[in-house]
Each structure stands twice: as structure tokens, then as C-alpha cells.
């Protein structure tokens, strides 16, 4: 199941977009897409449909040099994040209605070489986050931008993708419960707002702090006492 399928579902149920991506923000949406793609890659699946869409979008928008969709659409929407997301979803629906054409252009973004594993063997969001934690120099490759909304979107996209194969990821549920009950760091407003506030607006530091919590949970889990 391609990320295109999930984006088409969001287009049909636009009012439920926050249920998929968290905060209705272009960074959350971009993180969601990256997380879904990362999950597919972990299963050895190349999302060629989304790659075709990305090429087609650049041809349609005639961007030279091409800008990322979130930059262009946010500008075109007067900084209205929901409208920018709607513009993207409208383009996805248009692409699908046209039969998902192949533009024949170059690959949209230079990702990791095919020989490099991207999450191979990962069965939980926790595994994915531990891998990301250990590859700090590659954080922008995973998240797009070093922002907690990107990471949160990444997590949500990865989880949705896992669920399409019947994986409910109970391990991540245990982590959230541990964060809430033991660390008292999963408030109703979400970890993103709290960590950015605690880190005085330092986004990379807030991301690092969250990933350290994941590592702490993992260690305690291995010793049977999370």
C-alpha cells in the first residue's frame, strides 16, 4: 500500500487530517510521508507510485529549481498550513485521476543509495527511533528538517504503515505509557510542545532528548523493568 493511498484517504476525509499527522502543519505532513516511506523501505518495498507523483508534481508546478512542496504551497496559501496541506492532497487526487502518469523525469530527491539499508528488519517504531538516534549525522535525511513536528509526523507515518500489515506495535504503546506514568513527560498537549519548551526552543536538542528517552526505555525494557 503506497503512501499515495493514505494521502487519497486524507483527501476524502480532510477533516480528519490531524488524526493522521498530529498537528496540522506542513512539517507534520512531510514527516508523515517520510515515515511511511521509511516503513515501506524497512519491508523492502520501494514506493514507486509516490516517486512518480513527486516527479509529476515538479513538472506540473514547473519549478526551476524545484522547491519542496511545503515551501511553495505554504507561500501560495498565505502561511495557512491546512490550506497548504489541502493543495498537496488536491494534487495527489489530480495525479490519481489522471492514471498516475510517469513523467520520465529524474528522481525527486537524492535519498540513500539502494545498497544502504533503511530500517531493514524494523518491527516497531522503537527500533526505528533507536536506529535514527545512532545516526545523528543523517537526521535531516530521515526527517527532512530538524523539527519535533517532523519527528512526530515520522512516527505517525511509520505507525500507520505498520498497521496496514496488521502490526499494532504494542511496544510503542508501552513506551508511551512509560513516558506518561513513569517519566511524566507525555502530557495531553503532546511531547513536542513540552520538550521544545523545556529545551528553550532548541529543536535538535528537543529531538535528542526524546530519542534519549527512547534509549532509556529500551535499556529498561531489556532488563524487564520499563
Please, could you describe this protein's structure?
- The chain is mostly helical.
- It has helices at residues 3-12, 17-21, 26-42, 48-61, 69-76, 81-97, 125-133, 139-143, 148-163, 170-181, 191-198, 203-222.
Strand percentage, roughly? Answer: under 5%
Gyration radius from CA atoms, angstroms: 18 Å
Helix content: 55-70%
By DSSP (H or I, 4+ residues per run), the number of helices equals 12
Mean pLDDT: 88
Low-confidence stretches: 107-117
The rough form would be described as: globular
Number of strands: 0
Largest sheet: none
Distance between the termini: 34 Å
Class from helix and strand fractions: mainly alpha
Order of helices and strands: HHHHHHHHHHHH
Summarize the structure.
This protein is mainly α and 226 residues long.
Q: Topology of this protein?
A:
Elements: H1 3-12, H2 17-21, H3 26-42, H4 48-61, H5 69-76, H6 81-97, H7 125-133, H8 139-143, H9 148-163, H10 170-181, H11 191-198, H12 203-222
Keywords, please?
62% helix; 226 residues; 12 helices; mainly alpha
Amino acid at each position: 500500500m503506497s503512501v499515495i493511498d493514505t494521502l487519497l484517504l486524507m483527501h476524502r476525509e480532510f477533516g480528519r487530517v490531524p488524526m493522521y499527522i498530529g498537528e496540522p502543519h506542513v512539517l507534520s505532513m512531510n514527516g508523515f510521508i517520510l515515515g511511511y516511506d521509511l516503513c515501506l523501505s524497512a519491508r523492502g518495498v520501494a514506493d514507486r507510485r509516490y516517486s512518480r507523483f513527486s516527479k509529476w508534481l515538479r513538472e506540473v508546478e514547473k519549478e526551476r529549481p524545484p522547491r519542496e512542496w511545503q515551501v511553495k504551497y505554504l507561500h501560495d496559501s498565505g502561511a495557512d498550513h491546512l490550506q497548504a496541506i489541502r493543495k498537496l492532497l488536491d494534487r495527489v487526487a489530480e495525479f490519481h485521476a489522471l492514471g498516475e502518469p510517469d513523467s520520465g523525469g529524474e528522481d525527486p530527491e537524492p535519498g540513500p543509495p539502494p545498497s544502504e539499508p533503511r530500517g531493514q528488519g524494523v518491527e516497531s517504531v522503537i527500533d526505528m527511533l533507536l536506529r535514527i538516534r545512532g545516526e545523528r549525522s543523517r537526521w535531516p535525511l530521515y526527517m527532512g528538517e530538524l523539527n519535533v513536528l517532523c519527528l512526530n509526523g515520522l512516527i505517525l507515518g511509520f505507525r500507520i504503515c505498520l498497521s496496514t500489515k496488521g502490526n499494532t506495535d504494542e511496544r510503542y504503546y508501552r513506551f508511551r505509557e512509560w513516558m506518561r506514568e513513569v517519566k511524566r513527560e507525555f502530557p495531553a498537549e503532546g511531547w513536542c510542545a513540552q520538550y521544545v519548551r523545556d529545551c528553550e526552543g532548541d529543536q535538535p536538542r528537543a529531538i535528542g532528548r526524546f530519542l534519549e528517552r527512547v534509549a532509556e526505555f529500551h535499556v529498561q525494557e531489556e532488563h524487564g523493568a520499563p
